[in-house]
Task: structure prediction
Amino acid sequence: MKQADLKDLRKLADSRREERSHDRKVLDFDWAGSVITALVSGHGHRYNVRIKLGEGRTYKCSCPDHAKRGRFGPCKHTLLVSRHALANGSATSKKPDTDQA
Result:
């Protein structure tokens, strides 16, 4: 169910946000149970992302884009974190290299 939730989340995004998510970095990442939290950087700013999977799935980011348009789909930071979670496929806490995107 968790992998399917992440894939569904990514389907909500427009191609422009998806494309722009590739030049950001995951600085800190934690996946505990059904909640993923991460710190993401890009262009001199850092944002906190939280994704709750399963029933009542939600996603939040501290960036201005999420505040303005988050109800229409995930921001680029949320997309980066979902891609990172899918690639790692683990529910354990991780602190990735800052070189990893």
Observations:
- Residues 2-88 form one domain.
- The longest strand covers residues 25-32.
- The radius of gyration is 12 Å.
- The helical segments are 2-11, 15-20, 64-69, 76-88.
